[in-house]
């Protein structure tokens, strides 16, 4: 495509074109230059040519060694072909195409932009097009910057417009449209539009190019720095050889199971093909690091020595004979069989009784590694099973992390506070633990991160909980429950002397060999300053005493004696009465026994009967279950009003207020059913309840006493509070054999089947005789009324 006022060299090779050049050299040296509609046509006919072209003057022609002819032409003006004709060039046999043409100048008049306003608009468009062309030249690498200077030096606007058009890198159809513009104004408008569109495309191309170049530069920079770092390490003698070869040797040396080894080799091949800085390389390398860090065959040798195991348990814990016997049973079986299919021990008891430290003692007795996992507050299932590798920052679950810390396939893993697991939209962690704690499934545990089976069957899992109520039934079914009811007073005293006092004196820098404790000091602290199932509060009190003693001047060689009289100065006034809780007989007051997360507790129940309209008022931070049993106790009394010597409509003229002291402490559970009913009968009949009696049991509307749970904890609480008589359901008589000897022998136990048995034992007097005839007459009169 050639535009007017532009000179251009051309290479001529086709016969018809060569004939035309020859004819022009022999004649007027004029050539008609038009463009083919389709470039793939080798022998174009007039139909294949555009009708708008240029008349050019042939300036120079010369043949070159390739057989083609190089010419230099100078376009003079635009022309329009009116008719194509045939002809022959002189001295040549090839046919050439001749055409009749007429000049095709720009239109003038209104459409051509004449007039002062039209000329100014055209001039403005030409200047705008020249400005855009200057920007276009700066972004188009194929154009020399001198072109803009040449065009700016021209005075003819037509020459400027055609000069801009000649240098645009646009398709041939658009160039032909520029050549065929009817007026200079139209040509300027087309140039402005084309230049604007081309500039947008060039800007986008430059932006993409800069992004690609930046990414390539960053990769090249990282590669260069890595190579420099490798060379530095090599010079320092820190070169460990090929990293991939080292990984391959580690995979072969770890003794991985065959499916895991095959997967590891596949990940290694993937890592070799990945760029060092790509995300896939980081994922594959992290996976390989975890596989190589986990123990697959390494194990510790079990210590199968019952005498040594017993000595180890006795050295770490006082009491807990049943727990120790169960552990020694497992060790004995392990010594005979060689492999014990993962028993799941669940230690259930109040805080401070030594559940966590007992798990550590089990590991020490077996000679195994010990790892503790705290499950309190865990709500995400991925904490157990791990995260998928597609997530950023994915890691295996806590189970495999514990195995990595243990560095053996047979550790003791303590799952602490399993009853405090939560669940939300992220899943149920307790459901994920089913596969971990099931001996039939945990030999092929599948973590979401590793996605390969891992054997957990040789792990001894020990779980701890404060109560069984918080453990799901399916998870509880896979555990062997061992209850730790709490310590008796003599057991606390022995623990304090053997463990707590020496520990706190050493921690606070008090010389224990120069300190003497009075015989009644530690019992006074236990009775007057603590009231708990465990020994945590006792340890805190002893720590406070040790800090007070550390402030003294330990000069000379004498000894310091701590007497009971010094406790007020060391600990302040006693927070609990050191007295026997043998209360006097009171009307409407009964003592129940309840089970809480902190162990067994004595539950005092007070009921007052006031004149009113039959309203039942409940106070003392009561839960839904205990509120229901208050209503059940009232229904029982109303149903048996005649047998109790009460008017059948007593509830219409009396308000009943049920109160459980210690209102800041929540109270829940059905165990206080018979105590509520006893206190209510006492308040309505005026017969006092024996103060030396405590009771526990669930009551029905017909007065039957149903069994309860947690008898060990409740028995320890009764013994701790110096209760002389305890009433329990008849169905719980078989559980008395599980109580510690001191508790079983230190309390008088009474079993009952019905509320009549309870009232006969708990009420100080006898119920008044009931006139059956009078009761029948009163009920009949009430119906008639």
Can you describe this structure?
- With 785 residues, the chain is of the alpha/beta class.
- It contains 26 helices and 23 strands.
- The strands form six sheets. The protein has a seven-stranded mixed sheet with strand order 17-18-16-15-19-22-23.
- β4 (69-88) and β5 form a beta hairpin.
- The longest helix has 52 residues, at 184-235.
Give the % helix.
Answer: 40-55%
Task: Quote the beta fraction.
Answer: 15-25%
State the helix count: 26
Would you tell me the overall average pLDDT? 83
What overall geometry do the principal axes of the alpha carbons give? elongated
Major sheet: order of its strands? 17-18-16-15-19-22-23
The radius of gyration computed from the alpha-carbon positions, rounded to a whole number of angstroms, is 51 Å
Structural class: alpha/beta
List how many beta strands DSSP finds: 23
Poorly predicted regions are 89-93, 578-582, 767-776
Please outline the major beta sheet: 7 strands, mixed
Distance between the termini: 122 Å
Please describe the topology of this protein.
Blueprint: E1 7-12, H1 15-26, E2 30-33, E3 52-63, E4 69-88, E5 95-103, H2 115-139, H3 146-152, H4 157-166, H5 172-179, H6 184-235, H7 243-253, H8 258-273, H9 279-293, H10 306-316, H11 321-337, E6 344-348, H12 355-366, E7 370-374, H13 382-385, H14 398-406, E8 412-416, H15 429-437, E9 445-446, E10 453-454, E11 460-465, H16 473-476, E12 480-483, H17 489-507, E13 515-517, H18 521-529, H19 536-550, E14 560-562, H20 567-571, E15 589-596, E16 599-611, E17 616-619, H21 624-639, E18 654-659, H22 673-685, E19 693-695, E20 698-699, E21 705-706, H23 711-720, E22 725-729, H24 741-746, E23 748-752, H25 755-762, H26 772-784
Parallel strand pairs: 6-11, 6-12, 7-8, 8-11, 13-14, 15-19, 17-18, 19-22, 22-23
Antiparallel strand pairs: 1-4, 2-3, 3-4, 4-5, 9-10, 15-16, 16-18, 20-21
């Amino acid at each position: 495509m050639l535009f007017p006022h532009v000179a251009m060299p051309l290479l001529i090779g086709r016969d018809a074109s060569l004939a035309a050049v020859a004819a022009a050299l022999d004649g007027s040296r004029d050539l008609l230059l038009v463009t083919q509609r389709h470039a793939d046509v080798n022998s174009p006919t007039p139909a294949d040519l555009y009708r708008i072209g240029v008349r050019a003057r042939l300036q120079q022609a010369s043949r070159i060694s390739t057989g083609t002819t190089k010419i230099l032409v100078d376009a003079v003006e635009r022309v329009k072909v009116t008719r194509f004709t045939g002809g022959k060039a002189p001295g040549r046999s090839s046919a050439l195409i001749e055409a009749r043409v007429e000049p095709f100048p720009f239109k003038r008049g209104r459409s051509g932009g004449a007039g002062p306003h039209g000329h100014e608009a055209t001039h403005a468009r030409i200047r705008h097009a020249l400005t855009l062309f200057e920007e276009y030249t700066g972004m188009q690498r194929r154009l020399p910057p001198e072109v803009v200077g040449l065009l700016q030096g021209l005075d003819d606007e037509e020459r400027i417009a055609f000069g801009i058009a000649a240098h645009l890198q646009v398709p041939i159809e658009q160039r032909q449209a520029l050549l065929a513009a009817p007026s200079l104004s139209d040509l300027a408008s087309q140039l402005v539009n084309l230049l604007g569109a081309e500039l947008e495309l060039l800007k986008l191309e430059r932006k993409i190019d800069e992004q690609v170049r930046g990414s390539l530069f960053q990769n090249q920079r990282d590669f260069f720095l890595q190579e420099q770092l490798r060379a530095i390490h090599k010079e320092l003698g820190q070169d460990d050889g090929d990293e991939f070869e080292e990984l391959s040797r580690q995979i072969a040396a770890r003794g991985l199971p065959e499916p895991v080894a095959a997967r590891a080799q596949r990940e290694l091949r993937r890592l070799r093909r990945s760029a060092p800085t790509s995300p896939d390389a980081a994922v594959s390398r992290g996976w390989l690091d975890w596989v190589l860090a986990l123990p697959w065959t390494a194990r510790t040798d079990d210590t199968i020595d019952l005498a040594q195991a017993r000595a180890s348990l006795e050295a770490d814990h006082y009491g807990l004979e049943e727990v120790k016997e169960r552990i020694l049973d497992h060790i004995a079986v392990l010594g005979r069989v060689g492999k014990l299919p993962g028993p799941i021990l669940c230690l259930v008891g109040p805080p401070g009784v030594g559940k966590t430290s007992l798990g550590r003692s089990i590991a020490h007795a077996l000679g195994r590694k010990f790892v503790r996992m705290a499950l309190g507050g865990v709500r995400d299932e991925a904490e157990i099973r791990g995260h998928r590798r597609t997530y950023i920052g994915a890691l295996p679950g806590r189970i495999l992390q514990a195995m990595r810390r243990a560095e053996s396939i047979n550790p003791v893993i303590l799952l602490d506070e399993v009853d405090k697991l939560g669940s939300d939209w992220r899943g149920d962690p307790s459901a994920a633990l089913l596969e971990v704690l099931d001996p039939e499934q945990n030999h092929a545990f599948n973590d979401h991160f590793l996605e390969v089976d891992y054997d957990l069957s040789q792990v001894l899992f020990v779980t701890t909980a404060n109560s069984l109520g918080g453990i799901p039934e399916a998870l509880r079914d896979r555990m062997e429950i061992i209850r730790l009811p709490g310590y008796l007073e003599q057991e606390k005293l022995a623990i304090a002397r053997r463990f707590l006092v020496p520990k706190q004196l050493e921690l606070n820098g008090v010389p224990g060999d120069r300190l003497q404790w009075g015989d009644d000091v530690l019992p006074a602290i236990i009775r007057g300053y603590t009231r708990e199932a465990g020994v945590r509060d006792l340890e805190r009190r002893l720590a406070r005493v040790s800090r007070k003693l550390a402030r003294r001047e330990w000069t000379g060689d004498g000894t310091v004696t701590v007497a009971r009289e010094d406790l007020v100065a060391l600990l302040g006034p006693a927070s609990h009465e050191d007295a026997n809780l043998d209360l006097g007989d009171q009307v409407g007051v009964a003592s129940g026994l309840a089970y809480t997360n902190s162990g067994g507790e004595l539950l005092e129940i007070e009921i007052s009967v006031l004149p009113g309209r039959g309203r039942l008022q409940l106070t003392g931070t009561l839960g839904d279950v205990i509120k229901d049993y208050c209503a059940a106790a009232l229904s029982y009394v109303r149903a048996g009003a005649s047998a109790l010597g009460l008017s059948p409509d007593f509830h219409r003229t009396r308000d009943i207020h049920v109160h459980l002291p210690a209102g800041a402490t929540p109270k829940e559970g059905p165990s206080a059913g018979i105590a509520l009913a006893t206190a209510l009968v006492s308040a309505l009949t005026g017969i006092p309840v024996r103060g030396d009696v405590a009771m526990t049991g669930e009551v029905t509307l017909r007065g039957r006493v149903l069994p309860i749970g947690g008898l060990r904890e409740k028995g320890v609480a009764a013994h701790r509070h110096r209760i002389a008589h305890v009433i329990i359901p008849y169905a719980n008589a078989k559980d008395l054999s599980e109580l510690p000897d001191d508790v079983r022998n230190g309390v008088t136990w009474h079993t009952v089947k019905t509320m009549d048995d309870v009232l006969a034992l708990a009420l100080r007097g006898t119920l008044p005789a009931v006139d059956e005839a009078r009761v029948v007459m009163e009920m009949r009169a009430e119906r008639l009324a």
